[in-house]
Design a protein that fits this description.
It contains eight helices and ten strands. It is of the alpha+beta class.
């Protein structure tokens, strides 16, 4: 099997998640790891029996620099931002069934952890929902507003954004890293139905109003009225991070077409920066 050589740079919490899934992907040959924390680098290298690089330059140089240079000149460069939720099975299915949404509500809430304090909740977690929502609407963004507050750190720990798109679509996005319950949901209303997606369980439920209310009598004589219909969508579930890394390797090998364009990546980052700037204006 044809493989692509990969160097993993940065082996913190997310880096170790990548390390675990990379070892499960047949099309990837992990040639080494690097981290600026030498003690941590030595621990991970010893624990997993993986080659370590002494510098960032060595890690990049070893990654088939000449071959990569040739590929960049002959083909379009393969560049992928880590929007892991794009590879959530429920999100991928949602793109096939959503048409003309007019009301969207995204909630991404989690308890506080001191793991990340150098960046606020907007770039830490809200960015994922901004990416998903704008990819689903497929219409130009007209305007947006945002607010956020510091609770436990020097950056925004809670944030809310309102997006208005061309046509009749509006979206509200809430993010928190100081909430006592972990919630990651996306609800979407369209003329056809109301959709509820759970990122954690990779589930989608569809709620429809019954065509006509009908009274039904059960075998034990109880009458009830059917007012709505609830459907559950079949989802192929897999590890989104594994699918993301596998997709990246297959794009390099020419087996897959990029799921997300560089234009989409830039659009999401600009919107995220705009929301953060709106929040800072109120401080």
């Amino acid at each position: 099997m044809e493989k692509v050589n990969i160097s993993l740079i940065g082996i913190g919490r997310m880096g170790q998640f990548h390390l675990n899934v990379i070892n499960q992907i047949n099309s990837i040959n992990l040639i080494g790891i690097y981290d600026s924390d030498e003690k941590h680098l030595n621990e991970i290298s010893s624990k997993y029996n993986i080659n370590k690089f002494g510098s960032l330059e060595e890690a990049i140089d070893k990654c088939e620099a000449e071959e990569l240079e040739t590929m960049v000149k002959e083909k379009n460069i393969i560049f992928q931002v880590g929007h892991v939720e794009r590879f959530n099975g429920a999100v991928q299915e949602l793109h096939h069934i959503i048409e003309n949404p007019y009301l969207i509500e995204a909630r991404r809430l989690a308890p506080f952890t001191p793991r990340i304090t150098d960046v606020g909740v907007v770039f830490d977690i809200m960015i994922h929902d901004l990416d998903i929502v704008t990819s689903l609407v497929k219409k130009p963004l007209i305007r947006f507003s945002a607010s956020g507050k510091r609770i436990k750190t020097n950056n925004e720990d809670i944030a809310s954004a309102l997006l208005e798109f061309e046509g009749n679509t509006i979206a509200t996005i809430s993010a928190s890293r100081v909430t006592q319950e972990k919630i990651r949901t996306l609800s979407i209303s369209s003329e056809e139905a109301h959709f509820i997606l759970d990122y954690a369980t990779q589930d989608i439920t569809i709620h429809r109003q019954a065509a006509s209310q009908s009274k039904i009598k059960t075998s034990i004589g109880i009458n009830y009225t059917q007012e709505s219909i609830i459907e559950r969508v079949f989802i192929h579930r897999d590890n989104p991070l594994k699918l993301e890394d596998e997709h990246f390797a297959n794009c390099i090998l020419g087996k897959d077409k990029k799921l997300v364009s560089i234009e989409d990546d830039v659009r999401t980052i600009k919107l995220t920066e705009g929301i953060l700037n709106k929040i800072k204006e109120t401080w």
